[in-house]
């Protein structure tokens, strides 16, 4: 029997490349598409010699053509960290809107199932804690994060419209902070920033008083949840993330312990619209997908630290946003 064919947009990025690996392992024919605006071919170069892997260098905000049949489309193309989308806000809005529209059209044309990578940022600075999928969010559309949050909210609305109006098979994953090997060392988020600063022997930068919370999901757990959602028959949004919550200050202490460096903190002003609390309610993922995270923070951080140690010399240092 011929292999199922799947298109992964953003395939050269952090999450997209892990998805490609998983789909290859499951014996799909994988077509990765990426314009490399934040991604890197080194994330997928190990796949290039495989006969069931193809790569297209292309911007999905422009017309997308793929010859032959397609069974699934996973739309992961989008700048994802504040440092990126603050630099390229228009491209961020375009890939969430025009890109999603192009791919929904392609999915319809090919009769493929489409899964979109949405985000916990659709909840904005949430007034409900932890966040369930039926919470509508608290987003400032004209704030600095508006370009990302609203692009993702539009992406969800457009995807749901194709599902309702055209009967297209669609899936929506709301991803919470995820970490692991291949995440960029200088992507501006707190976890890579702390690991890099600790490895360089610099003080860890804390924005505000460090009492704000985050929860971090290890990449293998996330990919497992996405794969289960893809194969499920559930068309509404599902949170995938790790509910284990920690304050930024406690997290800084954990990183110093893990890396064996003395705790040195440097306090800086809190950026505008920085969410105070972020924690997924994963009841739906448990019920619908039978999924919950398996990798604890200690183990996940240890695996990520190995990657950072190997790559710390490669990437230039950059300020955190
Ligand atoms: P990433 O920056 O590593 O990967 C995104 C990839 O998309 C990059 O390879 C980039 O070059 C590509 N891309 C961007 N615009 C494109 C375009 N117009 N055409 C083609 N390719 C384009 O980011 P990531 O962390 O892997 O995020 C992947 C997806 O998951 C994004 O949609 C992001 O919004 C979502 N997400 C990620 C997280 C997380 O914690 N990493 C959390 C929530 C949501």
TrEMBL record:
EC number: 4.1.1.35
Protein keywords: Decarboxylase, Glycoprotein, Golgi apparatus, Lyase, Membrane, NAD, Signal-anchor, Transmembrane, Transmembrane helix
Cofactor: NAD(+)
NAD(P)-binding domain: residues covered: 7-304
GO MF terms held by the record: NAD+ binding; UDP-glucuronate decarboxylase activity
Keyword Glycoprotein annotated: yes
Compartments in which it is found: Golgi apparatus, Golgi stack membrane
GO cellular component, one term: cytoplasm
GO annotation terms (biological process): D-xylose metabolic process; UDP-D-xylose biosynthetic process
Pfam families: GDP_Man_Dehyd (PF16363)
Superkingdom of source: Bacteria
Primary enzyme class: lyase
Pathway as given in its UniProt record: Nucleotide-sugar biosynthesis; UDP-alpha-D-xylose biosynthesis; UDP-alpha-D-xylose from UDP-alpha-D-glucuronate: step 1/1
PANTHER family reported for this sequence: UDP-GLUCURONIC ACID DECARBOXYLASE 1, UDP-GLUCURONIC ACID DECARBOXYLASE-RELATED
Family listed: Belongs to the NAD(P)-dependent epimerase/dehydratase family. UDP-glucuronic acid decarboxylase subfamily.
Entry protein name: UDP-glucuronate decarboxylase
Organism taxonomic ancestry: Bacteria, Pseudomonadati, Bacteroidota, Cytophagia, Cytophagales
